[in-house]
Amino acid sequence: MVALAIVAIALGAGLRAAGSLTDNAARLGEVIAAQWCADNQLTQLRLARTFPAVGESDFDCEQLGRTYKGRLVTRPTPNPSFNRVDAVMSAADGRALLTLSTVIGRR
How many domains does the chain have? Predict the structure, then answer.
């Protein structure tokens, strides 16, 4: 009887660990797709070869069949020749996923 209880506890712990791994894999896939969206927006900004104005702008992005909401936040730096741009990504339901940052200089 004691052995059966030990096996049941071990199997329960194993199932819980497998469930956590599945949840983590799904979250990782979501974060990677959101990172692609953020990286695409920052690359597009760099390729435009214009100095970004200070402020905020929203954008939507679709990757792997999922929709993400993004916000580009541009702030000045101590050096006036550079601005910091943060791409803040969230899921369609508003959950924050990641922030990707870069510095863009005057050309």
Answer: 1
CATH number of the domain within which 86 lies = 3.30.1300.30
CB atoms within 10 A of CB 89: 26
Residue 5 one-letter amino acid: A
Q: What residue numbers bound the domain in which 13 lies?
A: 2-105
Nearest to 45, CA basis, from 101, 107, 89, 104: 104
pLDDT one-digit tens code per residue, 69-89: 999 999 999 999 999 999 999
pTM: 0.74
SS (H, E, C) 11-72: HHHHHHHHHHHHHHHHHHHHHHHHHHHHHHHHHHHHHCCCCCCCEEEEEEEEECCEEEEEEE
The closest alpha carbon to 83, from 48, 50, 38, 40, belongs to 50
